[in-house]
Amino acid sequence: MGRIALKGLSKNFNDVEVIPPLDLEIADGEFVVFVGPSGCGKSTLLRLIAGLEDASGGNIEIDGQDATNTPPAKRRLAMVFQSYALYPHMTVRKNIAFPLKMAGASRDEIDRKVQAAAASLNLTDYLDRRPGQLSGGQRQRVAIGRAIVREPVAFLFDEPLSNLDAALRVNMRLEISELHQSLKTTMVYVTHDQVEAMTMADKIVVLNAGRIEQVGAPLELYRHPRNLFVAGFIGSPRMNFVNGAGAAAYGAQTVGVRPEHLRVSTQQDEGAWRGRVGVSEHLGSDTFVHVHVDGVGAMNARIGGEMGVGYGDDVWLSPDPDKLHRFDADGMAL
Amino acid sequence: MAREASPSRKIVTTAVAWAIGLAIFFPVLWTILTSFKTEAEAIASPPSFLLFDWTLENYAEVQERSNYLRHFWNSVVISIGSTLLGLVVGVPAAWAMAFAPSKNTKGVLMWMLSTKMLPPVGVLVPIYLLFRDGGLLDTRIGLVMVLLLVNLPIIIWMLYTYFKEIPADILEAARMDGAMLRAEILYVLTPMALPGIASTMLLNVILAWNEAFWTLNLTAAKAAPLTAFIASYSSPEGLFYAKLSAASTMAIAPILVLGWFSQKQLVRGLTFGAVK
Amino acid sequence: MATAHSRMTARLMISPAVIMLLGWMIVPLSMTLYFSFLRYNLLMPGMEEWIGFTNYEYFLTDPAFFEALGNTLALVGGVLAITVIGGVGLALLLDQPFFGQGVVRILVIAPFFVMPTVSALVWKNMFFHPVNGLFAHAAKGMGMQPFDFLAHAPLLSIILIVAWQWLPFATLILLTAMQSLDSEQQEAAEMDGAGPLSRFIYIVMPHLARAITVVILIQTIFLLSIFAEILVTTNGGPGYASTNIAYLVYAQSLLQFDVGGGSAGGIVAVVLANIVAIFLMRMIGKSLEP
Ligand SMILES: Nc1ncnc2c1ncn2[C@@H]1O[C@H](COP(=O)(O)OP(=O)(O)O)[C@@H](O)[C@H]1O
Ligand SMILES: [Mg+2]
Q1: CATH number of the domain where residue B180 is located
Q2: With b meaning 16 or more CB within 10 Å and e meaning fewer, what string describes A137-171?
Q3: C137-178: per-residue pLDDT in tens?
Q4: Structure pTM?
């Protein structure tokens, strides 16, 4: 079991309100990602759940039990830290065994579980090394091994991949997703990278300045962002926003359209935005062209495959009307 | 310096540096040499440097006449005792200040340091009277207490600077792994801080071994450590250079060895981390 | 950072240290303060009476006090001058590449680990002694009259002994600081056309400034309380020629048994040390910032 409920949970650091009171339900077995710009309070929220910080107000329930004042050691949660936080003076074996030792497990049980965890994480050959002798990816695996052996009710991850290089990051992302598929244990995962959020989450919680902007499945957020902040944060490359006359034509204060929902044409097109091509980024499968539109500014558009446009060419951009997002003066979706 | 110096320059530097180094070390060297001379040779004019009859009789005689080993043992008990007690009190305090700081932590640390700046003569009279009335004069336990208090700020401060270097998230990881406070300190903090704790211990043994205000004022014959024992040579009826040298050599030898191991820690400890 | 639970534990763990140091500071210091207002002589028990500031009047108007104050300042100033200048020079030298660096370093720091009573006695007997000391031998060897250092220049002799003990400390700290000097910075200055002297003035010295301040302040704390060296070599004499405040207080209270007068002197010493301490705390306080 691993049901976590936050009820009116809030946090102040010396009179600065970092997390205003918020409510959130995390279902058993769910993979929940907290995403938001850096400094928005993701780590703080995760540490509140972990018990590493005291709540300033509200409650935390784990499996229906009030855990607000339970010390971290007794919450049956496991955490993977951004810095991995391995014990430098212990071998990999001892690192992974530590939670079991704390739980008072027998020698045999410890051995068995450490072996099993090491095997599943490809660490068997490294069991007698110290963390200092491992690569970043291996350290990451040890941290995960240490978390899984104690069979927690939920895993907490705080930006676990941000210290890895790009290729490794993609691998570990898959490994963590697979781990979730096989264990089916609740996971709460913090990241500032919306790609990680989109690819891994069952449910994304978008945070901004300590407030929850929107909660939903990845595609739900992509298709129906509730406000400008979510619209701009979810999706890569970023959504284009148009204000003023261009937006008024659609009866909104602001309209947003994703690069993949813009049609680019070299022929004059009524009702389309006209602009000049700037830089083009060729990714092979797609090309992103940056277009300077008079009276609107820079817009980014995706072209499938190749298309004969070059620097300085005139082009016309027309949005897919079904995929257009309209926002009112308060930035809320219409 | 990243670059190689020219060979001739390196040779000149070598000569100058060795000459100055030996000059500074000379009093120590001379003491050690004299300890192996007879009393007559020790005051011979002109003095002989190496060509004398080497003898060990001074060492035997110092022990025989003045029960040297007792004073040596007093020094050991007092310096190690006060240091160990200091660690027992200091480790938890430094843990608290490094890992659970409050608004007052900095103030408390500074205040602790300020006690170190209290000149001992400022409290000499009352401590002397309290010791006299409490039967603590000339006892090892009394000196252990005083040196514990004298060096406690340095112990706490050094430990604090070492603990500060341990990333807090490793301790938090231990908490998440189910460790309560005792296990966290025992299995995670202490092993990681061991080099720092060892340095702290070393430096404080040295400071306590050489402390020469309280040891001189609060002891007589019985509990006198080596500092006070050596001071008793200041007004000998005759002059016993060779025996003084033998006693001195034995008194400084252990600390010279420890001191050479702890140069770096010395800098850090005595500057309270201001220079690393 | 921390939870209420760990903060409570923290308070519990820090309190033994705080209570002990509070006791060490408050109890004896307030007793000293109290005694300083009493006529209180250990030879005349039961005659204690409140006499207000009389002890301070006596202590502060005693010519011995002025002499001791002057000696204290000379001792501190003399030792500081020798150790700081010598320390910078030695640090510069030891920072150069040469054969046997490690050994020379060990030789240079050795005096710091010699207990004060030993170094004082060794210097007194084996170097300064007018008949058997090495300096006397050397003087006779050159056909000169031996000089009785401790009789004719007691304060200077003590300054030399103490400077010998503290020179390693200054050297070690300045050397440590010097080694943290970025060699690229030096090379950049060299590229800019700075010679060795201007590099020393504009790059090395400013870098060492902080370490020098630390050396001065910390040594001052210890040097204000020099005691064993005086006790063992001159007993403060001849007259008061080598008595400093610390020794004067000791002599008054434990040799003349004048607890009241000694206590007044002790309070004066505390006030003097505090003035120095305030500067030191400012310095260290700054370096505490992350
Ligand atoms: N221990 C602390 N004391 C004071 N402020 C803190 C502390 N920890 C975090 N904060 C503040 O809380 C805010 C949220 O921090 P954090 O949760 O670490 O953000 P994120 O993980 O989203 O980058 C930041 O503005 C940060 O400065
Ligand atoms: Mg964070």
Answers
A1: 1.10.3720.10
A2: bbbbbbbbbbbbbbebbbbbbbbbbeebeeeebee
A3: 888 888 888 788 888 889 999 999 999 999 998 998 898 888
A4: 0.81
